[in-house]
Amino acid sequence: MLRELVADILAPRVCVGCAQEGSWLCAACVGSIEREPNVTCIGCGSLSRFGATCSRCRAEFPIAGVVTIASYRDPAVQQLVQAVKYASAKDMVDAFARLIADFFDRTVMEVVRSTVGEQPLLLPVPLHWRRRAARGFNQSRCIAESLAGAGWGTVVPDGCLIRRKCRLPQA
Asked: What is the reported pTM?
């Protein structure tokens, strides 16, 4: 509590979208972020429901589909991603959780819950141990825990997925 108060005094939270003080991403900017339509196959780009991978592309892309919550072209989204991944801004993960929750509230949560159940499992993508040591935390796990804390599902324990190779960073 004292640590957060000192942090707010020395480095107050300022919205990455509009520079309004109070949060890393204000409600107005969450609502104005460009959304991806999630209507195409990740492989061939053909129309598909919620980004499902079509049967022709399943061999090359062995995942059921990809749901994108926001466009990386949006400057606020770019700043959030880069700050969390490269500036170790761990306290910004709540802004990601807010963005994800807003997306699911507004679009597909009913479909997700009818497909996977009332308590979805949240599976954070692990970091390679070297990257985790350098960053000090796994942003995917922090975002998943923030979502779980808001009632969006249950975080799967570490160890279900293992990252074996250390790849180049991606923004």
From this structure: 0.67
